[in-house]
Amino acid sequence: QLRLVESGGGLVPPGGSLRLSCALSGVSDTITWFRQVPGKDREGLLCISHRGSIANYVDSILGRFTISKDSAKNTVYLQMESLRPDDTANYYCARRFNDCSNSPYDYDDWGQGTRVTVSS
Q1: Which pick of 7, 39, 41, 109 has the fewest CB atoms within 10 Å?
Q2: Please, which residues bridge with residue 66 across strands?
Q3: CA quadruple 95, 99, 103, 106: dihedral positive or negative?
Q4: 3-state secondary structure of 52
Q5: Alpha-carbon distance 12 to 42, whole Å?
Q6: What DSSP element (H or E) covers 116?
Q7: For 15-22, what is the mean pLDDT?
Q8: 111 — alpha (psi -120 to 50), left (phi > 0) or beta?
Q9: pLDDT tens digits for range 77-114
Q10: Contact assessment for residue 2 and residue 95, using Cβ atoms and an 8 Å cutoff
């Protein structure tokens, strides 16, 4: 069974940094980080495809969030800098077997999520 496990969330003050991890089991394919706040759909943030290409779907994270992959550890990271209160959300990683997509409906495998709270 394919599994994804997120970690690294927590409470951080505005301007702070966090690195989220998505540990994978099984075959590594296209991975996207999403976030969700209550009452809204999951928002696709950054994707790293099975070919290694990267897609950014949200302007507000440009220059602040980066996605990377350590193939030896089978882990995908989301490095978040200059965090703001509106980054507060549950963050999820998801897997698919095709190219990047920012639609949560295109993903079948999800982690359980990790909570990020940006507050002073």
Answers
A1: 39
A2: 79
A3: negative
A4: coil
A5: 21
A6: strand 114-118
A7: 98
A8: beta
A9: 999 999 999 999 999 999 998 899 999 999 989 999 99
A10: yes
